[in-house]
Amino acid sequence: MSWKLSALASKAQVDAALDRCDQSIGWDENIVLTAYEVDPNEPDVWRLEAYTQGKPSEAERKALHELFDEPVPAILAEKLPDTDWVSESQKGVEPIRAGRFRVRTPDHAALGDPSLTEFVIPAAQAFGTGQHETTAGCLEMLHIMKAQGLLPGKVADIGTGTGLLAFAAMDLWPLAFATASDIDPVCGPAVVTNCELNHIPLGTDRGQLAMVIADGMDDPALQARAPYDLLIANILAGPLIDMANDFAGAVAPRGSILLAGLLEKQEESVRAAYRRAGFRLHRRIVNGDWSILWLRHRFQG
């Protein structure tokens, strides 16, 4: 039986708590954080929620408590029914449009518009349906990359979640070698299921998707398929900074990196890390509070 810890606070307090979690060393990955605006009419009132696999331990309560500065808002614990809350949260969500893409759940019908590529992503125990501003921003940026003539022969989607961004890249560049990875083992079967739903072939040849479970670039299969012409990473600011050199080392000399999952206020720190690793900003999108960055090798011709 899962539980939920929740705290009501200002948007600034919740943003600071999420930042602190990003920068935390040794954060318990079994504690899943979400945050949202409670009422559109009160945009400064936000709720931070932490889902745990059992009754919250003192250590788990303390971990959430330490994300806030004093005075810490009241933290409430709630026992949840035996329900897949990720699935429940995604049921009935409206389809989104980003670039040439439309992403929908099976609850919604296809539009039948030949100018659109539609992906079906069901509610599942992995994130990345495109509802989040960063994912939608990445879809838009991939569309822009194609329009500007980018032609990658090898693509990697690190932290793939449902596989959506890898699917979009494969639609744009159908002859590329495509690789997707995630640190969370639950993403493996989720991606396989979504490949079947969207008629994405699995495999290691051109036009096929190779899925691996890996921590960052620490995997022989990921390393063997490098260097990549395009590396996509829609994760969090802290890991993006930590893995800047690893990502840079896995990208071809004239390659591109697409970064997302960072708040606009975190952008400069992320860009600084990649400047040191030899990349420069080529284009950016700001979607809500989030930045989506297209970086290219500094010494491009």
Task: Provide an overview of this structure.
With 301 residues, the chain is α/β, with parallel strands linked by helices. Helices cover 30% and strands 32% of the residues. It has helices spanning 11-23, 58-65, 85-90, 133-147, 164-172, 187-197, 220-225, 237-242, 244-249, 267-276; strands at 3-10, 32-39, 42-52, 75-79, 96-98, 101-104, 117-120, 154-158, 177-182, 209-213, 228-234, 251-263, 279-287, 290-297. The longest helix is centred in the middle third of the chain and has 15 residues, at 133-147. It is globular and about 55 Å long.
The main β sheet shows up as: 7 strands, mixed
How would you describe the shape? globular
The low-confidence parts are: 125-130
Kindly report the average pLDDT value: 88
**Proportion of helical residues:** 25-40%
| Structural category | alpha/beta
Number of helices: 10
Q: What is the CA–CA distance across the termini?
A: 56 Å
Keywords, separated by commas or semicolons:
10 helices; alpha/beta; seven-stranded mixed β-sheet; 32% strand
Secondary structure blueprint with pairings:
Layout: E1 3-10, H1 11-23, E2 32-39, E3 42-52, H2 58-65, E4 75-79, H3 85-90, E5 96-98, E6 101-104, E7 117-120, H4 133-147, E8 154-158, H5 164-172, E9 177-182, H6 187-197, E10 209-213, H7 220-225, E11 228-234, H8 237-242, H9 244-249, E12 251-263, H10 267-276, E13 279-287, E14 290-297
Parallel strand pairs: 6-7, 8-9, 8-11, 9-10, 11-12
Antiparallel strand pairs: 1-3, 1-4, 2-3, 5-6, 12-14, 13-14
